[in-house]
Amino acid sequence: MAVSNPPPSLDILVRGPEGLTIWAGPPFINGEPSVKLDKVRCSTTKFSEDGSKLMAIRSDSLISIYDCKKLVEIKSLQVPNVLAATISPCGTFVQTFQKSTSPQEKNVVVWKSETGESVYQLFQKNMSKATWPVFKFSYDEDVACRLVTNEVQFFDPKDFSKGAVNRLRVPGIAAFELSKSPGSYVAVFVPESKGMPGSVQIFSCAKELQSQPVARKSFFRCSSVQLNWNTGSTGLLIVVQSDVDKTNQSYYGETKLNYLTTDGSYEGLVPLRKEGPVHDVQWSYSGKEFAVVYGFMPATATIFDKKCNPLLELGTGPYNTLRWNPKGKFICVAGFGNLPGNMAFWDYSEKKKLGDTKAELSVSSEWSSDGRYFMTATTAPRLQVDNGIKIFHHNGSLYFKRMFEKLYQVDWKPESPDKFEDIAELLKSVDSIKLEEPPKQGQGLKKAAQASTKAASAPSVQKPAAYRPPHAKAAVSVQAEVRCEIN
Hints:
7% helix; mainly beta; four-stranded antiparallel sheet; translation regulation; ribosome binding; Methylamine Dehydrogenase, Chain H; Eukaryotic translation initiation factor 2A; globular
């Protein structure tokens, strides 16, 4: 169904040593992007999840907030000794974490982004994956909550001065995840302790419904979990990580994928047909299906419905990454990080593969909000050479490529996929485009050497590093984010 208003532009944020630049996204005029905002010096940037605001840490004490429609600064915050900052989903609030000089100093502050008003302050000794950001918001910002010792505290984002309006008591809680759309449930994780198994429980966010969890699952040999809510807040996927694999098949431990529903219709393991780790899992935009890539290499990828029935097999290969097109029609299965960069593009509605290609050395990857383009990037500090951007059509054909001496960050500006027209007719317009074939043995090194300004070092970086399991990669990425924010 066509949208009534003109769709928004597909803007791209590019950050390098000279700061951030905003490109007008594809389709590019004459094959080159035009610049909408150029060279704003900053060390960290983040879009709000609705794409309305952009936050940039410009110096040790200055944080700028930009209106993304007009690309003008609407407010700047002076925050001395800031170590980290983030922006809420609708861009209403900015959270900052400062270096504290005493326990009496309230070093976590929630600011109104448009006025610069401080609406809440508290003291926090340190920052970790489980505690930053301090406040987690639902996508519509109707619900906000934070983790403290043995409980989750709920706040009213319309009036933080009320303090905690509700407290969910969970002894031993180590992490939680608020459902985002809508913010009606919260999942909590309690690790193993004194011979008791670890557990994940789902509670309603409504105070009057919190006497008992709506769903619960216990785990033995559980070191950590990853919690993944779907759109609609009806299902929760739980990747359970154990540091020790009792079968001795993996040095990196063992992972299992569990699934819980808020209506009690499913509670247990997802039936994966191959032994080995769970590399990646992703819900579709609708929240009615999810995809999993799993198993010892070559890994297998499968799409399941919300009752855990397999719907489509996406083949096997050197894969560890899933990226589901936000319009729901296409999905990319890829092997990034320490893998060679193979990508397979599938049409989910037609149940067929569209093409194969490669994006070697990719650090980040994501679909555009309209579902027409797939962008990969090679960035520092993960890789210090061959930094660059590639943009592909939905079927894997290469649309655009640009190399950089140094590149730190590349992001699409977020937009709701509902603002864009249906893409069912795209296949007709791009069927004639020739797919970029994966380079034959020896050609990949030659091309990389020609593109890089340091040709002599290109062959060494093409060699894949030792495989890193999902939980270790997640830990590294969190540390990198914290270091980036500190710098």
